Amino acid sequence: MSVALHHLACVALLGCAAPPLGLGSGATTTPGRGGVVGGTATIGAAANRQSFQVEAHGAGNVASWFAVEAGVVYSQLSDTREPKLLIAGGFPYVRPRLQLGPVSVATAVAGFGFGAGGGGLIGGIADVQLGYGTPSWSVYVGAYAHGFEVTSESPIETSARQQRIGGEYLWPLGTTKLGVAVEVHHQHDHLRDDGVMVHGDQWGGAVKVRIQSGRFR
């Protein structure tokens, strides 16, 4: 089993195999037209597991009721049970958001795939978030489904589902804001390498620190 999981970890480092800690910002509102750029660092923990994630994103308000956010995320997950497991990966995403007053609905999607010779790989994620926010704070619930698969003589597969609830507060620093979000999530995932399977079904928590800067008119 340890050989199989080591092989899984090595391959996963090349793709988007690590289940992320959610995507994008919270549900705070931004007035008028304009845009912001920002970055987020996240640490998460559950029983026998630790996660780390960094993310860069930009967002623009197309209208008072519609915004588009795009970013790139890198996630890393380690499981301390024997045999120890480390998987990581990153991918870009696009995240449209509908804003109806303080209520927002955001959906993020990402995916890729290619094939060559006797195999190939495919991966992707779909995320949705419903939130209520002001320019200073927000509360939200969200969920995602995530999958990654390598087809070859030794097939490799990871899949995950997550539901989360969280809140975020932003402190103004001129045209820059510093935000801190706290989330609680329930995640179910499984990893398969050539018939060897590892399952997880756990509650966990995460803390996100976000910096964003931008101007609106």
Summarize this, please?
This protein is mainly β.
Explain the overall architecture.
- It contains one helix and ten strands.
- It is mainly β and 217 residues long.
- Strand 9 and strand 10 form a beta hairpin.
- It is globular, with a radius of gyration of 18 Å.
- The protein starts with a helix and ends with a strand.
* Structural domain count: 1
Oligomer: single chain
Largest beta-sheet details? 10 strands, antiparallel, barrel
Please give the CATH architecture: Beta Barrel
Using only C-alpha atoms, the radius of gyration works out to 18 Å
Count of DSSP H/I helices: 1
Spatial sequence of strands, sheet with the most strands: 1-2-3-4-5-6-7-8-9-10
Low-confidence stretches: 1-15
Sheet-strand content, in percent, reads: over 45%
Number of strands: 10
Describe the secondary structure blueprint for this structure:
Blueprint: H1 2-12, E1 34-46, E2 49-63, E3 66-79, E4 85-100, E5 103-116, E6 119-133, E7 137-151, E8 156-173, E9 176-193, E10 196-216
Antiparallel strand pairs: 1-2, 1-10, 2-3, 3-4, 4-5, 5-6, 6-7, 7-8, 8-9, 9-10
